[in-house]
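Chapter review: from sequence to fold.
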Amino acid sequence: NKHTVRFLKKMGIRSIALPFELSPNESYAIANDKDVCFERVVYGRPPLIHMKYCLISKTNECIDCGKCKLGDKYTLFGKDDFLIRTNSTRNETILFPLKKISLPVLENETNFLRFEFTDESTAQINEILSAYYTGYFPQGDYLTNIGSV
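The token string follows.
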């Protein structure tokens, strides 16, 4: 909120990423401070959880089970489905939603746009960036729930 922006400015922060959950009106209300650069994620899977725990080997330390060397992408199915990415060099697991966010770019809303690519191919990345560049955006799974206009 605007109080957080004011606090971060006092701390010397000059660049702030807006939360995914904000509607366009809420984004405008916060991002009207011209002393701070604002960025907004407009496409991708937001990282939900970073863990120093290996969900694959079920330990806090790497036991070199070799499973993460078979591939660093797994899916956790349940009430909500998650994409699991592992990083064996840092003994880290990150959970992402399987659904992607795709939000429209609103004029003068922010200084920077951020794209969170996780498993898109080079061709898909180029297609997505081209679509945004020409003023269109790909339909995301959360468009009607988050940041819709």
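Two observations follow directly from the output. The radius of gyration is 18 Å. Strands lie at 15-18, 37-44, 49-51, 73-76, 82-87, 92-97, 101-102, 112-116.
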